[in-house]
């Protein structure tokens, strides 16, 4: 029977839930908003399947790719719509052309991120572009298996741990009609923090009666350039809600500084192609250093060809890209492959764990959540307190550490809460506790 005693040992891939013959495992969110499995002891038959499919149980050996390309889609329209060099679009298009099915992360109507599939080119845009939130896998592994048994071509794209979960669920069986694509992953942020941020930017300034409805969200808008990408949100009706460069956007800065990643991300077991994917994609941020002639403002993808099957698919569509071959050594500066990053992440996570329960503050560098105070307590869970701060000093200016004093509406409107946990003067720290609510200063 699966029992999670260390949260760093669960990546939330949902493989255990889907493989269970008794359906006695369910995923429940913890106080940070990450999903973890819980087993019903009464219904468990001790078959051990859940433990055998767990990707963190026995991680695979490290691999090196067969070939590495720097690639940019020749179609400017596709390139503009893609987060990077437009490679995934062509892989998906090729699969759909064979009456196949493409799985990836998409938004639902409430802007939660969930894995699902598309069967038509008209729906392909739903799973394009990066979404910096952990996606809910749901029952997609089961659906993949069903499509494969029907003989249909399947392309599945996900994080390395989600891919490892899929291969474990399929019991490492080799399917000639399955192409697996992952990407160099920075880590997955908390869905709870994402919803809090979204709620904050959707509140009309100083009013709590009406909220703003969103029609479009893009974490990687290239309206400035590929490297200097922006977080873009557009209201229904076409009015611009937010267009903020990633270096200034609160949510993106918290993500890029590892403030609210899943615990398992800080000890990632899949940084060197252990997921068994056929292809691995990434941004080729260092292309100017490798070959300045292939650098551009629209995006360059780093493509790792890991298997013969991946090689066959990609080589069949090579004419759709401008590309060059590069060496594995040229890619090692990318943090997604830099195993030393783990040491820093473990230290950040350890500091966070020390503070959970006695310090309630969020330091995001710059205007935190656009100078918004975000309360994590709910009516159902009033004591829920989420810490996502890597600074130490308790918030002495708003009550003691164990019992922070609620911020009044008047003081909230007057000025942002001052930095009280040792952050730089430019940073803003906001206390997160029941009694606070989202209040925009814009």
Task: State the main characteristics.
442 residues; alpha+beta; eight-stranded mixed beta sheet; three-stranded antiparallel beta sheet; globular; disordered C terminus
Concise description?
With 442 residues, the protein is an alpha+beta fold. It is built from 13 helices and 15 strands.
Radius of gyration: 22 Å
Query: H/E series, N to C?
Result: HEEHEHHEEHEHEHEEEHEHEHEHHEHE
Total E-strand runs: 15
Strand numbers in spatial order across the main sheet: 5-4-6-7-11-12-3-13
Taken from the alpha-carbon principal axes, the silhouette is globular
**Largest β-sheet summary:** 8 strands, mixed
Percent of residues in helices: 10-25%
Low-confidence stretches: 354-442
**Cα end-to-end separation:** 51 Å
What percent strand? 15-25%
Oligomerization state of this entry?
Answer: single chain
The structural class is alpha+beta
* Count of alpha and pi helical runs: 13
Instruction: Calculate the mean pLDDT score and round it.
Output: 79
List the helices and strands and how they pair.
Layout: H1 15-19, E1 25-29, E2 35-39, H2 49-53, E3 67-73, H3 76-81, H4 87-97, E4 101-107, E5 113-118, H5 140-149, E6 154-157, H6 160-169, E7 178-183, H7 191-202, E8 214-221, E9 230-235, E10 240-245, H8 250-256, E11 279-283, H9 287-290, E12 301-305, H10 308-315, E13 321-326, H11 328-331, H12 341-355, E14 361-363, H13 409-414, E15 429-431
Parallel strand pairs: 4-6, 6-7, 7-11
Antiparallel strand pairs: 1-2, 3-12, 3-13, 4-5, 8-9, 9-10, 11-12, 14-15
């Amino acid at each position: 029977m699966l029992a999670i005693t260390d949260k760093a040992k669960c990546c939330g891939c949902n493989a255990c839930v889907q493989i269970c013959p008794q359906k006695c495992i369910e995923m429940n969110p913890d106080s940070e908003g990450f999903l973890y499995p819980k087993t019903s002891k009464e219904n468990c038959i001790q078959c051990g399947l859940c433990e055998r499919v767990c990707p963190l149980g026995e991680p695979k050996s490290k691999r090196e790719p067969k070939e590495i390309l720097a690639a940019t889609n020749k179609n400017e329209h596709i390139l503009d719509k893609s987060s990077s060099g437009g490679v995934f679009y062509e892989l998906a298009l090729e699969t759909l052309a064979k009456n196949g099915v493409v799985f990836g992360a998409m938004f639902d109507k409430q802007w939660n991120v969930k894995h699902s599939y598309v069967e038509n080119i008209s729906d392909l845009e739903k799973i394009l572009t990066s979404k910096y939130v952990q996606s809910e896998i749901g029952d997609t592994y089961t659906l993949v298996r069903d499509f494969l048994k029907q003989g249909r071509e399947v392309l599945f794209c996900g994080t390395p741990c989600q891919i490892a979960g899929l291969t474990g669920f399929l019991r490492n069986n080799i399917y000639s009609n399955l192409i697996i694509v992952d990407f160099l992953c920075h880590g997955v942020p908390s869905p709870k923090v994402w919803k809090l941020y979204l709620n904050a930017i959707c509140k009309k300034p100083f009013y709590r009666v009406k909220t703003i409805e969103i029609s479009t969200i893009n974490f990687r808008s290239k309206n400035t350039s590929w490297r200097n990408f922006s977080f873009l949100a557009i209201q229904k009706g076409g009015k611009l809600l937010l267009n903020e460069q990633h270096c200034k956007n609160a949510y993106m800065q918290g993500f890029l500084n590892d403030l609210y990643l899943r615990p398992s991300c800080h000890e990632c077991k899949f940084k060197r192609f252990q997921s068994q994917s056929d292809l691995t994609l990434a941004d080729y941020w260092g292309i100017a250093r490798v070959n300045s002639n292939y650098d551009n403002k629209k995006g360059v993808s780093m493509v790792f060809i890991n298997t013969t099957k991946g090689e066959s698919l990609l080589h069949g569509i090579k004419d759709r890209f401008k590309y060059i071959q590069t060496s594995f050594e040229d890619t090692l500066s990318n943090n997604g492959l830099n195993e030393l990053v783990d040491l820093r992440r473990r230290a950040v996570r350890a500091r966070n764990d020390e503070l959970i329960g006695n310090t309630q503050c969020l330091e995001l560098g710059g205007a935190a959540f656009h100078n918004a105070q975000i309360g994590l307590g709910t009516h159902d869970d009033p004591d829920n307190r989420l810490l996502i701060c890597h600074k130490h000093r308790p918030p002495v200016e708003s009550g003691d550490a164990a019992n922070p004093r609620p911020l009044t509406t008047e003081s909230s409107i007057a000025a942002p809460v001052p930095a009280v946990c040792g952050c730089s003067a430019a940073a803003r720290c906001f206390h997160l506790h029941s009694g606070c609510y989202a209040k925009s200063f814009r």
